[in-house]
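hey
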């Protein structure tokens, strides 16, 4: 009959195996990791060094254009058009409402885009680290199976050792269960440390925390609304406002372009880059809109109420318990049968 101590250790192993198997099921980890794959796959190019450098250049170009447009160009145009500032403002509002509205909102819209670009730059290392969970060659969708497979094996082997009949078979299966538990526990402790899982999980929390307000339905809608204002302003500026100003100044397009380049170079450069800069920002905004759901899934690993760093504990704590229980179980020896003393042979005394 199996000793109570060994039964206890096998019971603990079976219970831990069942817990590990159920953990990803209860927390819906598989769809969450699929969300991680969708999110990282969609945004990976945006976090590449070349893309970040281009985004910063684009942002600086638009900011310089806006600054000069507000501080130099618009104040100079009324005099050039022989209008008072009030007349010029009325003329712009009546004829170019999208431009007028957009310019009035630049001081609130551009700082938000600046913060978004800065967020991309500062969070790039965290994104690259989070993108390597569990490794740089395995997708995030393998994480649930790191619990499914060991959990199932531990539960079946330890549970089998508890219910199988036959002393020899029970002893062999129990020994196998204890060895498996010790090995799995060691892997659960060593592998996350070797693969820097705690650091990667912390990077994930930093990343999701930085963009938590952006990747929501409300945040994405706000970014889209701001982008629409800038796009509408740009379209009307290029298609209507600048040609009308050139005509009012009695200049042909070439003369007007030369005038702007000499007098307001930042505005001229910005206007010339709008058709390439704004599509890139449109792509960024579109990426935010299409990944709100994926971001929410990724941010809820292992649960929506716990940080991603808690996932590390689901490796280390069960691992430590499995090692301790496995080693203790292997150290317990089954009592052997006490050999029966052989009776002493009688000898016939010869008298």
């Amino acid at each position: 009959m199996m000793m109570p101590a060994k039964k206890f250790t096998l019971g603990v192993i079976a219970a831990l195996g069942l817990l590990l198997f159920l953990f990803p099921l209860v927390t819906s980890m598989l769809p969450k990791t699929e969300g991680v794959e969708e999110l990282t796959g969609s945004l990976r190019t945006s976090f590449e060094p070349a893309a970040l450098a281009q985004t910063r250049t684009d942002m600086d170009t638009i900011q310089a254009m806006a600054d000069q447009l507000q501080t130099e160009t618009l104040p100079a145009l009324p005099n050039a058009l022989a209008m008072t500032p009030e007349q010029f403002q009325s003329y712009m509002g009546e004829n170019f409402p999208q431009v007028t509205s957009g310019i009035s909102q630049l001081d609130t819209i551009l700082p938000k885009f600046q913060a978004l670009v800065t967020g991309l730059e500062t969070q790039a290392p965290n994104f690259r680290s989070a993108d390597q969970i569990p490794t740089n060659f395995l997708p995030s969708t393998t994480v649930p199976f790191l619990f499914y497979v060991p959990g199932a094996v531990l539960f079946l082997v330890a549970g089998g050792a508890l219910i199988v009949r036959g002393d020899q078979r029970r002893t062999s299966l129990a020994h196998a269960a204890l060895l498996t538990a010790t090995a799995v526990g060691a892997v659960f402790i060593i592998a996350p440390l070797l693969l820097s899982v705690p650091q990667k999980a912390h990077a994930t929390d930093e990343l999701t925390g930085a963009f938590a307000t952006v990747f929501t339905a409300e945040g994405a809608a706000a970014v889209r609304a701001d982008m629409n204002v800038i796009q509408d302003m740009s379209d009307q500026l290029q298609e209507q406002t600048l040609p009308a100003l050139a005509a009012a100044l009695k200049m042909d397009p070439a003369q007007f372009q030369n005038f702007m380049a000499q007098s307001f170079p930042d505005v001229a450069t910005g206007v010339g880059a709008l058709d390439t800069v704004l599509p890139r920002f449109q792509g960024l905004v579109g990426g935010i809109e299409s990944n709100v759901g994926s971001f929410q899934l990724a941010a809820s690993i292992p649960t929506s109420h716990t940080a991603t760093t808690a996932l590390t504990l689901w490796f280390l704590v069960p691992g430590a318990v499995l090692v301790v229980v496995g080693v203790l179980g292997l150290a317990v020896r089954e009592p052997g049968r006490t050999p029966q003393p052989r009776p002493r042979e009688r000898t016939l005394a010869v008298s």
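The mean pLDDT is 93. The longest helix spans residues 97-130.
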